[in-house]
Amino acid sequence: xxxxxxxxxxxxxxxxxxxxxxxxxxxxxxxxxxxxxxxxxxxxxxxxxxxxxxxxxxxxxxxxxxxxxxxxxxxxxxxxxxxxxxxxxxxxxxxxxxxxxxxxxxxxxxxxxxxxxxxxxxxxxxxxxxxxxxxxxxxxxxxxxxxxxxxxxxxxxxxxxxxxxxxxxxxxxxxxxxxxxxxxxxxxxxxxxxxxxxxxxxxxxxxxxxxxxxxxxxxxxxxxxxxxxxxxxxxxxxxxxxxxxxxxxxxxx
Length: 253
Ligand code: GRG
What we know:
Blueprint: H1 3-14, H2 23-33, H3 40-51, H4 60-77, E1 87-88, E2 91-92, H5 94-98, H6 100-118, H7 125-147, H8 154-176, H9 181-206, H10 213-229, H11 239-248
Antiparallel strand pairs: 1-2
Helix pairs in contact: 1-4, 2-6, 3-4, 3-8, 3-11, 4-6, 4-7, 4-8, 7-8, 8-9, 9-10
Bound molecules: geranylgeranyl diphosphate (GRG).
């Protein structure tokens, strides 16, 4: 099964079916995760398992967990108290569709579901759950720094708001496949740089960067090159991770 099929199948398996009571909650959770996302983080997770000599199937539950947690951050980020966004992925945001209170609760439920799902990994469950917690906390630290008035530390925001979930994805995928500590360290470095490159590219796509456009372009290229070079010496098949890193550079949203 290809990576994208594994991702959609496992998400469908772990999300509450639409009939689950209260129906508005299961509907909102499915709507939030639904289709339209690029699924970058679960792809990193599955491909990291392959890169350390395991199979993508080893990492199916951590892959679902990271995509679910990512979608919780988006649901809460869109709320009126934060970005007050009315549209995401071409559809009304969760709070617009289901109301503000239900959006808060759907986000909370997705966060809980992410941990329940990560705990289904075939091995190294305590380390996997700890990594998800560490980087999940990092995202909130990045967000708080970002909404801070006045001077903020942009690098801190980029590392935590964006790269942390890339790191969790790669590390959880590797651990689920039984990676050595050396391989986990290489993938951590890969994901940090890929996350930064992803954020620089996002700024380029938005036509707005604190570093200026020209500098941002070179930062994206440097970070991508650094990410790819961290894959050297890994014990498994790094094809998917290399393809993914190259495809994110110069992407069209
Ligand atoms: C509310 C706890 C909490 C956190 C919110 C991560 C975050 C903090 C908000 C998300 C908004 C944002 C612009 C984050 C930066 C990371 C980023 C570029 C997210 C979008 O990820 P994509 O492009 O989204 O992978 P898709 O739609 O493809 O899943």
